[in-house]
Request: fold
Amino acid sequence: MPWRVCRMTEIQGKGLWIWRPEHLLKNYQTIEAAMEDAKSKGFSHIIPKIANGTYAYTPSTPEGAKLPELVSAARSSGLKVVPWTYSYSYSLAPEITAIQSAWAHYGGDGFIIDAEAEYKRVAARLFAKQITTALKASMGVPVGYSSYRFPSFHQEFPFAEFNSVADFTAPQVYWEQAHNPGDQLTRSLHEYEAMTSLPYYPVGSSYERGAWKATAADVNEFNMTARGLGLAAVSWWRWDTAIDIGVYDELASHDWPSSDDEESDPNDIAARLKDIAMGLFDMADELNEIAGEL
Reply:
């Protein structure tokens, strides 16, 4: 299946979510070594947390102390940086201020709003549009949201409001307590496609919960399904736990084209642009035929 069309400024390839940079030091001697390892194993981007609600992870905080080193090492290694925040949807101006304060220190190639149960309120509908719109205007990069895998199970959530202003979705397709990631990913994609045309960048499980944990077979199936569906990117929650439960080598073995691959092959970009142009011409011909029948 051909790749789904996405703008060159958007996320491509495989990425790793990071809760706290120091968690990586369980398995690496330095942050720099971790970034170099990720790049050498084909990862294209990292997704570090830089705020939690109204609390900014600036370098002077315990949570942000190692973020400057992380971001600098990632960029030096050729990894893109797509920070994220957990949003509570209660205090608009303070949340935006916290995110922008942290963003001023780190910047990024995109941004993700993690929005979950707190958004299941009527008042959160307007909040969803306002925070996304404000961040897009101030950051100048693609801004997306990450939430539930199956919208049909969470109809109180403001999917429509996020979809009206966000640049992409990053659904949390966590197959916790099961081992059928391919089926769940396919269903999730179809549910999102039924309500929006936004690029879909799923987040897979690379962690354990109680007696359950994602297996090597699970992550390989998720990856194979994502590739078969023609998705442009996937990411994994999360990097350090992927190593802890023994699936990191599997993630490393997954072959994904990265944004660097796209940029280094202008002929491929030209071919894709030509395909898009031809599709638009075909659409125009069909519209002309319809107009002639009216």
Observations:
- The chain has two domains: 13-258, 264-294.
- Residues 266-293 form the longest helix (28 residues).
- The chain is about 45% helix and 15% strand.
- The two ends are 35 Å apart (CA to CA).
